[in-house]
Amino acid sequence: MKCTIALAQINTKLGCVEDNLEKHIEYIKAAQTQNADLIVFPELSLTGYALQDLTSTVSHRPTADDPIFRPLLEASQKMDIMVGFVDEDVRNRFYVAAAYLSHGEVLHVHHKVYLPTYSLFDESRFFAWGDGVQAFDTPFGRMGMLICEDFWHASPPYLLWLDGADILLLHSASPGRGLGQQPELESAHWVDHINRAYASLFTNFVIHTNRVGYEDGLNFWGGASAYDPNGQRLVLGPRHEEALVMVEIDLNQLHRTRARLPMLRDERTSLVQREMNRILGSGDKNSGR
Amino acid sequence: MTNKIPVFQAQKSSQHDMSINTELARKILTGFLHSEVTRTGFTKAVLGLSGGIDSALSCYLAAEALGAENVLAVRMPYKASSPESLSHAQWIIDDLGVQSLTIEITDMVDPLFAKMPEINNMRKGNIMARQRMIILYDQSAAFPGLVIGTSNKTEILLGYSTLFGDSACALNPIGDLYKCQVRQLSRALGVPSEIVDKAPSADLWAGQTDEADLGYTYDQVDRLLYLLVDERYTPQECIEAGFTADFVHSVVERVRRNHFKRILPPIAKLSNRTIGYDYLYLRDWGT
Predict the structure, then answer these.
(1) Cβ–Cβ of A179/B285 closer than 8 Å?
(2) What is the model's pTM?
(3) Domain locations in chain B?
(4) DSSP codes of every residue in chain A
(5) 10-39 in chain B: CB under 8 A from chain A
(6) I need a labelling partner for B22 at 20 to 30 A (CA). Which of A106, A141, A277, B263 fits?
(7) ipTM value of the model?
(8) CATH label of the domain that carries residue A202
């Protein structure tokens, strides 16, 4: 089976959900003309990134009676959609969230687990952290969603892999930083590097969309990409410019690669569990938490 | 036996090379200028053009980002300013085709100097820098356009600027580039080599140079600041890397002492929600 994916590396308006929704609908229509099966928007695509005190004013619930999600759910009758938004739970906690919409239904919502609060980042000042990493079934196989810092840590992609995800959908609002002699920023190089590594280590598809534009002095570098289970890059979007980046993935490649390279078959999950129990139970303060 | 084992030495890398990819810098900085000027509803920009490298680079970037016809370069000489500065600024205006204006500040600042017989060069320099700010912000309303900053990372860190004078701007494209990186990017953008290579000067009196004012060269202090700030070296590690202890300590202290120039004035907190502490929005809020 083949799946045509549209990576929408868009700019957003900070705190202006209706304006951003309008852009989502435009990109969805453009993706339809390209016969896309799935469109992937960046992190916080409906709100903009550095929300600070705007956080509590831009939240939405991914339900059919929400004025922002209603048109997106309608649009998902024709094409699966992954969007980024601020989710407010019933106890009024705010999450950096990603929703996967398909045939008018919300198939899955992921809450960002790792909220960077260092360097230029201050996310956990404003957001609650998610407490789960789960794969989910879609018309194109089992997938998993992660948001930016989530995949700067090795364990969330690993957990999704073990939970059955063959396609990792990653999205970011990654501020560009680290200008040296190379033609790409250090942050862009790093993300590309680890995405290739996940595709190679897990013999998975890795799909990544990152936003573009500026918020005050921060730049966002775009460069949406897709890797196949061999770790080969299928597409790389332009840097720093809005684009609808199209890529077709051949899901039969999973069969071919894993016949050659049985990393999943040979993964020693019970060993991992046993050693995790030992490490975390040892009370050794140097073992992480 | 052991001397027969082939030993392979890692090549010493050019660690801490401060050179940058100029094409990438150009793309990010012109994109920044275009985005941050236009999203506020403006299409144009105003900047002071001294004839030195920093304002030249900001002018080249602004002309590329906004179109030369949308950039107003203002020359604001004092009677003691070097004629060479004025003609270097003219080269840039001619090369880029930006709009220009020349407003001499002598008649504006001399009456104030005359009222203060004990005034020193430092105070005069501050008054001149603030007078230029007044002209630029007036042109900001008249042109109209946003004032583009021309301070680089080295002088911002050292506090080698006049608060509310040359440091005043709406946005700054070159404030994260050290002086040596400003030179590299300027060459790549075609800033005339005479401007790139001449001794940097605030041009407040004849023969003044930045490096004589500061007491060290930009090349020295760029490298030290890069280790301290970007690479997070401790002062002791900088000394171990080859800098003299006196130089390291004087720069560290200078950076600390001038931090007030890099932040908004603190507001005394009384309420539950105070601007600057827990009333937090980007300037780009709503755009």
Answers:
(1) no
(2) 0.94
(3) 22-201, 216-264
(4) -EEEEEEEE----TT-HHHHHHHHHHHHHHHHHTT-SEEE--TTTTT-S--GGGGGGS----STTSTTHHHHHHHTTTSEEEEEEEEE-TT--EEEEEEEEETTEEEEEEE-S----STT--HHHH-PPP-----EEETTEEEEEEEGGGGGSSHHHHHHHHTT-SEEEEEE--B-----SSSS-HHHHHHHHHHHHHHHHHT-EEEEEE-EEEETTEEEEB--EEE-TTS-EEEEPPBSS-EEEEEEEETHHHHHHHHH--HHHH--HHHHHHHHHHHHHTT-GGG--
(5) 17, 19-21, 23-25, 27-28, 31-32, 35-36
(6) B263
(7) 0.93
(8) 3.60.110.10
